[in-house]
Amino acid sequence: MVASRLRGLWAFLEHAHNALAASLLRGLCAFDILQHMTRRTLLAAPLALSQAQSGVPLAQEQSQRYVRFRRGSAIAYGLLDGDTITELRGDLFNSPKATATKHKLAAVKLLAPCVPPKVIAVGLNYKSHIGNRPAPKVPEIFYKPVTCLTNPGDPIRIPEDSRNTHYEGELVIVIGKPASRVSAAEARTVIFGVTCGNDVSERDWQGGPEKDLQWWRAKGADTFGPLGPAIVTGLDYGKLLLQTRLNGEVVQKQFTSDLLFDCPAIVSFVSRYVSLTAGDVIYTGTPGATRKMKAGDVVEVEIEGIGTLKNPVA
């Protein structure tokens, strides 16, 4: 009798043990699944929220292409996606709102992508452009007048008495908000985006036998500042391939990572002495050697992730 009861008790304990083990195993599996799902959900939540709010993938939100254009007599800013422009309402640098109006890129005239209060430029900012000259200890800054700006596709007009006008393909910084005495780290937050530029330069007036006291005409003559075609935001401008072509031939080719003073360093330095405002642009310098242009030429400045700025020469 006792032996029989002991065998029954043993069987009961064995069954209970197995049931408890199975329960624990199911619990561990459930915890692992829950943990995995929670991690995945947490990682996906910001993306899902962003997509729900904007209706576009996060990757597109991080890189936007802003243009300024004319359709008929009306001028507006827009958001470029492929060959379609969504017209914007409001200040480009103060959260503009998308409208329901859309235009085909081919149906509008692209203009310089912003109207800057001032145009600043940097000289001698690539080792390949300096050659044997000593590298500057600080960014070499100069001004270009806003009247030198030229739209994409419009001609660069060489003055009649010019004999040595060159192209200079460059990355251009666009400032998005006021900045004064900012650090390099803070400078990143005031850079709205980047675009392409051509710092057209008359070498004889810049440093030759007809050298002026300042570069007011050497780099500031009318049409000597092509700019565009778009301002791109959310782009890693620290390593972009810049190429300039003259009549289809690649005449400049360098990465922006080779800048002696990068974009934040330039903005920080300038802001120590001159307050920057939304819309200001800064040409960051040109690489390599340059050549003379002549009427009938076509010059293109292409920067990876931004596009191509193309202008005929007249």
Strand residue content: 25-35%
CATH class of the largest domain: Alpha Beta
Distance between the termini: 117 Å
Fill in the CATH topology of the largest domain. Answer: Fumarylacetoacetate hydrolase, domain 2
What's the β-strand tally? 18
Low-confidence stretches: 1-6, 15-61
Number of domains: 3
Overall 3D shape: globular
Write the H/E string, N to C: HHEEEEEEHEEEEHEEHEEEHEEE
* Mean of residue pLDDT values: 86
Report on the biggest sheet.
12 strands, mixed
What name goes with the CATH superfamily of the largest domain?
Fumarylacetoacetase-like, C-terminal domain
Second rung of CATH, namely the architecture of the largest domain: Alpha-Beta Complex
* Helix percent band: 25-40%
Compute the number of helices: 6
Description:
- With 314 residues, this protein is α+β, with helices and mostly antiparallel strands.
- It folds into three domains: 1-56; 63-111, Roll (SH3 type barrels); 119-312, Fumarylacetoacetase-like, C-terminal domain (Fumarylacetoacetate hydrolase, domain 2), CATH 3.90.850.
- Helix content is 26%, strand content 32%.
- The protein has six helices and 18 strands.
- Strands 1, 2, 3, 4, 5, 6, 7, 8, 10, 11, 13 and 16 form a twelve-stranded mixed β-sheet that branches.
- Helix 4 crosses helix 6 (263-271).
- The chain is globular and about 55 Å long.
